[in-house]
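Hallway conversation turned thread

IA: we were arguing at lunch whether anyone had actually written out Trigger factor end to end. Turns out nobody had. So, for the record, here is the sequence (491 residues) and right after it the structure tokens. Reply here if something looks off.
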Amino acid sequence: MQVIETLAEGLKRELKVVIPAKDMEAQMLERLEDVKGRVKINGFRPGKVPFAHMKKMYGKSVMAELVNEIINNRPSEILSGRGEKSATQPEVAMTEDQAVAEKILAAEADLEFTLSYEVIPAIEIKDASGISVTREVVEIPDSEVDEQILKIAESAVEYTEKDGKAANGDRVTMDYEGKVDGVPFDGGKDSNAELVLGSGRFIPGFEEQLVGLKAGDEKTITVTFPAEYPAANLAGKEATFDVSVKAVSAPGKIEINDELATKLGIESAERLREIVRGQLENQFGSITRQKVKRQLLDQMDELYAFETPSRLVDAEFEQIWRQISMDLAQSGKTFEDEDTTEEKAREDYRKLAERRVRLGLVLSEIGEKIGVEVTEDEMNRALYAQIQQFPGQEKEIIEYFRKSPGAIAGLRAPIFEEKVVDHLLGEVKVTDKTVTKEELMAEDEDDAAVSKKAAPKKKAAKAEAEAADGDEAAPKKKAAPKKKAADDKAE
């Protein structure tokens, strides 16, 4: 086999591979020799088939198998021999001329094909000891735990009908129908809907106009849908709601005691407080982790500068762009609404893709150097978490992952990355800072533009934080007044 490098430009490589016809024929004859004692052909006893006849009958099919095996297996062997790693699956190209292909199968012409790929660049691991991050820690007071319990306990509140006027905290049972320009709109009508005033569940301004009403009252309420409302046909529009109050109910007093805990399925108030405190610690701890990781990656990004494989960047960009396009389509907005243009947005998101690819390669290299491994138990837990998201489809999900190496890699990658981040946090300087929950939740100026090099206005900065550093997009607030009381449990 002869391997000739025909292109070496930056990270791009192209190789011409030539396997002489005589070598291909030798391998073909070897395989025929191996099976000749087992071949059954009418008119010949087993093991007595003339070799020339076997070659005539099966030579081309055996040669075709050899070509497929070489195309599938030889590229990785060639790259390994060159000490190179391909960023993506190498592209293989061979002749499309039928006459030439027939000659190859007949061992009358050399097998030639080309490999096109990009190498993963050599990455020199930098000393991370100079990196310094601040870990914001929230100390959770007992009052915060009790406040959260009271929110959770809203589902256990018992309401009693009253004759007086509705006040904040009361539950109003009503019928309503919404209209824009006098025309009813989809999703704007409900009967016997229940709403706790002051809960913030409905469109801003809606609940406030119910205060003071009593059973039997009717009122037309005028509100304006938020400009960012998901339904484009309603966003920013003024609407009226014809409301008929059926009942007003006052809430019973909530006390944090064993009785309340039992109603919530917990054995005692003490245990309830322990559980809620643990949930808050996990919630705040997750946010703390995201912000620390973001600081770490920002400074890692400053340490490393190298050419990134364009095919990886293209794939990453396409993934980001699909999500952005879906978000815009669902919101009914345009790039102009986000104070940018499509051309500028593409440029900015490509920079984001380059950053993600570069940091991914760096973390991968560090992980390999320090011997990070993802255990079978960790993979099983990740798979189980995926299965839980699709109740009733467990078999289909398992089968999908069984047949999709890429999907399995997608489960492994974040686990691997978090382990590398843990390692790095053990090397860098970490300073703890006690903050309030409001301070922890607030986006500081650095977070508002996570990457100075890739900070398209508004949305791109948010995407940078979400995509590169593991944040989850905040759920959009429901604005249409159509949720039932059963949906109004504390979130």
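OS: looked through it. Residues 444-491 have pLDDT under 50 and may be disordered.
IA: good, adding that to the notes. The first strand starts at residue 2 and ends at 9.
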